[in-house]
């Protein structure tokens, strides 16, 4: 059954119990978790088993699942120490997957920008950057195999995997069941081409639907800024219908808006999901 979720970082709560309650009360079945939500780094150097047990207990009490966790670091940072520290944190998340129940760890495919993993750099499009990314990805695939997790690769305009086309190239080259894609329409549409957004997303769907394990529901305003689904120009009804008719059954994770919009966004997206009865 398809689950409706939200980024945990949408909410600012002091405890896992209060966070889980806020997610559930806003109308969501699951969350894309982030270790920062419990006061750690997104990629922590270590995680205490007691903390993990508390999170597991509190989320189970609120009936909120954790199918995915954020594990983003700059996979091709110019400084190799940044990459090594990120890989170590990824390993910690992979080890914690059994305790919290998530099967997917999302990635930042990286940029040659020295200080910001979300900023573009002209070298990103070169073969050297591609080779560096592939080498790092192969290391993560080895870790993923050991801990039985999936790597969620999301095309980001500022990163090495910058488009549906580069994501398709990666999938064809790697050919690993450990590598899936995260489909976020916000990162696939140039706001200046918003009049053609539906056609652009259809082409992206054709390239990536067979590998998509998570949909990120993030809308875009006419000025290119993120906004809650249903308040921008992206046609979520058409997009989600394509995926559902094609057999998609993963989580739909909303983000890109404030906590005050969480409940109304859940109501909007819930209306686009297949009815629970149809899955019985």
UniProtKB/TrEMBL annotation:
Q: Does the keyword Isomerase apply?
A: yes
The molecular function terms in GO held by this entry are:
isomerase activity
Database matches in InterPro entries: IolE/XylAMocC-like, Xyl_isomerase-like_sf, Xyl_isomerase-like_TIM-brl
By its UniProt entry, which Pfam families does this protein fall under?
AP_endonuc_2
* Occurrences of domain Xylose isomerase-like TIM barrel (ranges): 22-270
**Keyword line:** Isomerase
Recorded protein name is Sugar phosphate isomerase/epimerase
Which organism does this sequence originate in? Rhizobium mongolense
The uppermost taxa in this organism's lineage are: Bacteria, Pseudomonadati, Pseudomonadota, Alphaproteobacteria, Hyphomicrobiales
